[in-house]
Amino acid sequence: MNALQVRDITVTRGAGPVIREVGFTLEPGRITALVGPNGAGKTSLLEAISGVVPAARGSVHIGDVEVTKHSRVARAKLGLSHIEQGRAVFPGLTVLENLKLTARTWPRVDEVLALFPELDKRRNSPTALLSGGEQQMVVLARAFAARPKFLLIDEMSLGLAPVVFTRLLPMVTRFATEGAAILLVEQFTHLALGVSQDAIVVSSGRVTYQGSAQDLLATPQTLHSAYLGE
Amino acid sequence: MSRAESGPLTRFGVPLVVTGAAIVVGYLFSVGLDGYFVYLGMSAIVAGIALLGLGVVTGSAGMVSLCQLTFAAVGAWVVSGLNRIGAPGGFLVWLVCGGIAAGLVGVLVGLPALRLRGINLAVVTLGLAAAADLTLVQIQFPGTVDGVSVERPESFSDDRGYFWLGTIVLALCCLLVHFLRRTRWGSGWQAVAFSERGTAAAGASVRTSKLSAFAVSAALGGVAGGLLTGQVGLAFPASFTAMQSLALYVLAIMSGAHLIDMAVFGAVLWVAVPELLKRWGVPQDWGFVVFGLLGTHALTTGGNLGTAVRELWRRRSKEAAGVELTAPPAEVDVPPPGEPVLVVRDLSVNFGEVKALSGVHLAVPSNGVLGVIGPNGAGKSTLVDIISGFLPQATGAVELDGRSLNGLSPTRRARAGLRRTFQQDRVPAGLTVGAYVRFVARRRLSSSEITEALEFFGCPPARTPLRRVDVGARRLVEVVGHLLAKPKVLLLDEPAAGLPHEEHVALGARLRQVPARFGVSVLLIEHDLDLVRSVCDTITVLDFGQVLASGPQAEVLANPEVLKAYMGETELL
Amino acid sequence: MLQGALAGLAAGGLYAVLAVCLTLMSRLVRVVNFAQSATGMFGCYVAVYLSVHAGLPTWAATVVGILLGGALSALLGWIISTWLAEADIGTRSAVTVAVLLLLISLSFILFGNKPQPFHPILDGPAFSVNGVVVSQVTVVTVVLSVAIAVGCRALLGRTSFGLELRALSERPTTAELMGIPAKPLAVAVWAVTGLLSTLVISIVAPSQSNDATSLSMLVVPAAAAALLGGFRRLDLAVVGGLVLGMAQGAVAQVDSLSVVRYFLPFLVIVGLLLWSQRKEVWDVAR
């Protein structure tokens, strides 16, 4: 089996649980959109999967291996990649250096750069000097270079104009067509659902919808109540 | 359970009685103990005063100071110097002079290390300790070479009498530290150790807080040195080595010297460990090895003896105090919002190539609540940072009540009547709820005023230590403190984060009454639209660092552009 | 004056190497290591003990001492990166203060508090300029300090090991999420700086005041030199070390200024801090 399974996971931060008993499976080649209002606990869920924070209860499985107690590094070696919120570039490293970290070999770096002509032009600039959209592109390219089997993406649109984001979204689809299982957290709900097959809606730490992304798009009331209360 | 803090009688009476008792016990020791123990006890007293000082600078204010005995050497120098020239006043006056001189040296040394964080102070103080070490050996103390020994005061001239004098001085120093920690300075030390931004936002000067802690610590070091000189008669450089300063620092960390009893206990260890080793025939240098090991352990685990002992003591009440916001608040007349009191024009800031905010205009009406909403990353928290003065590189104008705030520091803005709260917890755990509220409010408050405000927001009682208050409730205590400061405007950065969702609306009902009850206008950043809807008269929407819409609540929330920005691309809503 | 300055150059080289170590540690593993020179001192003392009391040849004892210095440093690094992985630089550095105390007092117990009978590894003059003799020790330490700085720069800039270290120092969590093993790399940095400090102290200690406290307190002038490079730049750290050593040597020539010599590192630290903190900056984290 080559899926990533999250079983009844609970994550605690400070006073109380921010994620309560959430479970799902990420299948190769499929994109799952994880949506819900700010403060619903989406980031904490991703962090518990990749090992940034511990899970209070429940378990995480990569293939046949239970990784709940594994370090971040061990999980990464099993093919898990986590793109953090914000623009997680190494600002003092150049574009090439950022890519080399995961690509390992120079031919692979060139392969990846071929997909991002904008970056190729600035390959020797420190990433701190790039625009927000370019920085996010570096992050995506870096993840791409590692050929991850499982990819968690946390709000890559943060602080980006929609037009920039729509340029990045096809790259996510491309990850999936190459066989990666993807969990996509996104505030541009409809754009995210548009490229996803599955969808999970969380609100105040609990799952309020789990099923097909198309069905969710067709029933706006479910989303509406998760976001706007009432 | 009473919500009030203890009355003035217990606040002042108990410490005074304890001090008196300590002095009596000191007298009994001085007449009852064996002569050798009196000598050892005197060494413990000297170490105790030095540790009290370290407790202030490292324990309360969170800075690393590695030259406590250099300050002691300053005290010793002044006392033996004044003795040498036969200055008027006698030993006790010289002792006070020694303390003051050491405090002044502390201010001089502390100044350059203040802006950057603790570790710079460590480098500076170790540098000073190393230099003083070599220098003292070379130049010696006044009177040492010609053998003029320091004259003790007449009534305490024999060793037993001098020991009693030592206990009196130690008890007075403990009393001084006890009361100082309850003043604004003392609260400032706790606050600055936890968060410099939080300190500045409460209108307290970060610089003053750090410098006062360092000066008090150095002065206590000076007194310890002076007292030591009187004990031995002559001051020798070997008593003030950098090595011993390091050991004292480690001991302070390990014992938890910010607690007064633990400073005294640490002093007992300081003397007892080498003494016991000597009796067991072990070289005394193992004493420092033991301190080094225990210190490493304490630092890696983040605990110390003092808190460990207290945890055992208080095991019964481990439950964290939270917020109780069930009942709706009593109705008050909510007056209509008036003219703008806070006006922001053309605010912009870039982080590198990224435009975080560009050309933002907004106005907070007096007696009103302005809501600022927008998707994640729209620049809401950056906006609060700029208005409150934490991003001096930003451009644009901020006017409070017609007066420009441009160029003012966060501390000055807070004092001018513009307060803010933080999204992250910036409430120092070392204080009680009441002490923190008084510190933030910066004005005289009656107990009933504090109790009433805390009850209104469902916060735990004033005497609860903040370390036993959960994160959600801490954030509301922070709000209460700033409201009691009676600022013109309060900027609230997601006050409901950390509260269970069911309590958001209850909090909203209270925030709605804030202008009427406290006379404070509010700018509320919030992502829970239910809360915003129940509180705000007017709303400004930020998107990609720009104002997307602004106006009365109903109008803004009906704007399709706003829905689009807030929910992502949607043609359905 | 010139003679003094050149005499101080050996010490300057020593400061420079230690400053490079401090800078590497602060940049790569978020620690101001107050036990940097104490570790080296301890390794050297063990070497002296082995050659004097155990009869090992000087070179073999020195090699053992250097390896021990590296191992001690690695152990400390392992402790800090295990228990204080997420702690701030202040807490991590405070641990090294306790270790500094520990190492000095241990060396008092094991070796007494008198200077040690070092066998010089290098002895004699290298060449002379205008009648002023420059010793072999001076030449070797100065060359060594420059070589180490250049080598570290190349290692950080050109190799994938260095690339991973830089990534870790900039965003530790992100780097770990990419599968870069933080702890082994950090321990490696600790080990290397431990080796380097012990090496350079072994070379210079025989010709310096070499009691345990003096050698351990070498961290003060080294910190002053590292501050010149803001604890970031290796080249400035080397320059700072060499200049400070020469200045101290020159001042030592004048009897009336001897106290100034002791205070020189402290004054440099204070001056640099005042300069670097002209503007108020609000740290995001605090």
From TrEMBL, chain A:
Keywords: Amino-acid transport, ATP-binding, Nucleotide-binding, Transport. The keyword Nucleotide-binding applies. InterPro entries: AAA+_ATPase (IPR003593), ABC_transporter-like_ATP-bd (IPR003439), ABC_transporter-like_CS (IPR017871), BCAA_Transport_ATP-bd_LivF (IPR052156), P-loop_NTPase (IPR027417). Transmembrane segments: none annotated. One of its GO terms (biological process) is L-amino acid transport. It comes from the Bacteria. Residues 4-229 form the ABC transporter domain. GO terms for molecular function: ATP binding; ATP hydrolysis activity; branched-chain amino acid transmembrane transporter activity. The keyword Transport applies. Belongs to the ABC transporter superfamily. This is Amino acid/amide ABC transporter ATP-binding protein 2, HAAT family (TC 3.A.1.4.-).
Automatic annotation (TrEMBL), chain B:
One of its GO terms (molecular function) is ATP binding. The chain crosses the membrane at residues 12-30, 36-54, 61-79, 91-114, 121-141, 161-180, 213-234, 246-273. PROSITE patterns: ABC_TRANSPORTER_2. Keywords: ATP-binding, Cell membrane, Membrane, Nucleotide-binding, Transmembrane, Transmembrane helix, Transport. The keyword Transport applies. It holds the Pfam family BCA_ABC_TP_C. It is a multi-pass membrane protein. Gene3D superfamilies: P-loop containing nucleotide triphosphate hydrolases. This is Branched-chain amino acid transport system permease protein. It comes from Actinokineospora terrae. The lineage of its organism: Bacteria, Bacillati, Actinomycetota, Actinomycetes, Pseudonocardiales.
UniProtKB/TrEMBL annotation, chain C:
Keywords: Amino-acid transport, Cell membrane, Membrane, Transmembrane, Transmembrane helix, Transport. It is a multi-pass membrane protein. Pfam families: BPD_transp_2 (PF02653). The chain crosses the membrane at residues 6-24, 31-52, 58-81, 93-112, 132-156, 185-206, 212-229, 236-253, 259-276. One of its GO terms (biological process) is amino acid transport. InterPro entries: ABC_transp_permease (IPR001851), BCAA_transport_permease (IPR052157). GO terms for cellular component: plasma membrane. It comes from the Bacteria. The keyword Transmembrane applies. The keyword Transcription regulation does not apply. Belongs to the binding-protein-dependent transport system permease family. LivHM subfamily. This is Amino acid/amide ABC transporter membrane protein 1, HAAT family (TC 3.A.1.4.-).
